[in-house]
């Protein structure tokens, strides 16, 4: 087999410059395909939402998701103070919406880009999401630049049709079936 590979960071060779390690890590992470979600919140601290790929399943008993949220993000105070969030899993039709929620855009403009409802917690539920997990944040851990949020699922809404939206190599792809 003829595969082009490179070894950027080896355990035996500590990378002295943290900026280089950071860049190498990001370049490597760009090769890890990930589902794209819009994580929303609402409550006393107001409405907010951001695009997120750092989301995964933790346990099914009780149903729990993990979400990593950058402490420097504009949405951070609202998510932490409200204590609730909804993970809306995007379809291939949601590329523009993901860009809207991917930073810098004022919150009202983000939510004007789609239709929303609610389930149990009051966090915005994207009308045409593939799946929406409505959650309460039950624990958090220190992830350095990020807070790691453990989120118990209160309600789930899902639809059967549609393909997922994947982020890979810093571009969007459809999660169509592999033959
Ligand atoms: N987990 C995250 O916080 C995360 C994930 C994806 C994208 N982003 C942000 O979106 C923008 C565009 O990202 P991009 O993928 O086009 O290029 P990029 O080079 O900034 O990131 C490449 C990959 O590295 C990881 N990554 C990026 N920033 C990170 C961070 N601060 N902490 C942990 N992992 C991180 C993600 O998996 C990302 O897809 C950047 O501002 C990036 O910070 C953040
Ligand atoms: C595809 C993709 C995926 C992610 C992000 C971006 C994009 C484009 N962002 C960044 C996040 O959506 C937002 O841009 C930053 O939090 C900065 O937003 P503000 O401009 O501060 O609102 C992001 N941030 C985060 O804290 N956790 C995550 O998992 C992700 N994932």
From TrEMBL:
E.C. number(s) listed in UniProt: 1.5.1.42
Domain Flavin reductase like: 29-174
Keywords annotated in UniProt: Flavoprotein, FMN, NAD, Oxidoreductase
Pfam families assigned: Flavin_Reduct (PF01613)
Catalytic activity: FMNH2 + NAD(+) = FMN + NADH + 2 H(+)
Record InterPro entries: Flavin_Rdtase-like_dom, NADH-dep_flavin_reductase, RutF, Split_barrel_FMN-bd
Family indicated by similarity: Belongs to the non-flavoprotein flavin reductase family. RutF subfamily.
Function: Catalyzes the reduction of FMN to FMNH2 which is used to reduce pyrimidine by RutA via the Rut pathway.
NCBIfam families: RutF
Stated name of the protein: FMN reductase (NADH) RutF
Source organism of this protein record: Rhizobium miluonense
Gene that this sequence comes from: rutF
């Amino acid at each position: 087999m003829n595969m082009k590979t490179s070894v950027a960071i080896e355990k035996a060779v500590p990378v002295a410059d943290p900026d280089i390690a950071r860049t190498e890590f990001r370049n490597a992470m760009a090769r890890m395909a990930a589902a794209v979600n819009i994580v929303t919140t609402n409550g006393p601290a107001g409405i907010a939402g951001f695009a997120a790929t750092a989301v995964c399943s933790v346990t099914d008993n009780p149903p729990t998701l993990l979400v990593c949220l950058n402490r420097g993000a504009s949405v951070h105070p609202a998510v932490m103070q409200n204590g609730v969030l909804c993970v809306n899993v995007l379809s291939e039709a949601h590329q523009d919406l993901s860009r809207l929620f991917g930073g810098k855009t004022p919150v009202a403009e983000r939510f004007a880009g789609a239709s929303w409802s609610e389930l149990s917690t009051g966090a915005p539920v994207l009308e045409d999401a593939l799946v929406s997990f409505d959650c309460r944040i039950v624990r958090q851990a220190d992830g350095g630049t990020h807070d790691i949020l453990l989120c118990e699922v209160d309600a789930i809404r899902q639809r059967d049709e549609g393909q997922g939206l994947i982020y890979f190599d810093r571009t969007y792809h459809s999660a169509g079936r592999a033959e």
